[in-house]
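Below is how a single chain appears once it has passed through the pipeline. First comes the sequence as given, then the structure the pipeline wrote out for it. We keep one example in the README because the format questions we get most often are answered faster by looking than by reading.
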Amino acid sequence: MRSVKETLANMKTSFKIVGTRTCEHCGTEVKIIETSKGQVSRCLTCDDEQLKQQQIESIKQQKWRKAKAIFDKYSLIPPDIKKASFENYIPDDDPSKEDALQKAKWYANHFMDDEFKQKNFQSLFFRGLYGLGKSHLSYCISKAVAEKGYQSLFINIPDLMTAIKDTFNKESETTESEIMKIISDVDLLVLDDIGAEYVKVEDGRESWAADKLFQIMNSRIGKANVFTTNYTSADLVKKYGHHGGRLVSRMMQGTKPIKIQGDDWRLKQL
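Resulting structure:
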């Protein structure tokens, strides 16, 4: 049996440094080693960085799975919306529906690519009366973005307020700060049916809902969002009292408004 000294001596003869090169990725000087099977030259700096990024991504995915579990508990998406696709959205009776469809498809198809980043907006705001397909299109966007590997969260405002309110229970396993952190960090936040929530009116304003929504909008400035509402901007300003003007202003910052008109497609099914 060979001694450790002999083994090390053999290793020295088996591996020989024959030069160096500059890593094309990070600029580090890397040794070129001659072996019995040819030359080897790996950049350990790049290997370490790759491992670090893999660990970061693994942690990110673990947090995202927990986040999804939290919101899946509250997000009761109707069966017809779950089946929604760009293909089964029918822009039948008004040109604004076709316009909304094309803008939604463009947003989903180009999400975070170079063309997307060159636009002067990051978000969309669908506005119109009931049954015009606002939730349909926004859910399609959310699905398409998620299929690209981005973190996309679709939830309507009443469900979101319920989720936050439930954290006030001392037995809750989720904290409000966790929910707000998830909302702040997600790649795409889709808030459906803004203004549909109900909170007890105090001093002429829905203070609790307005406060929370204002915090959310502040945390999403400069990030990608999709909003839907049945209200006009003037109605939202009135609904949210002293926060109303600032809330709508933040909501519209970097946002492209899309007004949808026409007849309620649900009524046509009767």
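The longest helix spans residues 44-72.

See the next section for the split statistics.
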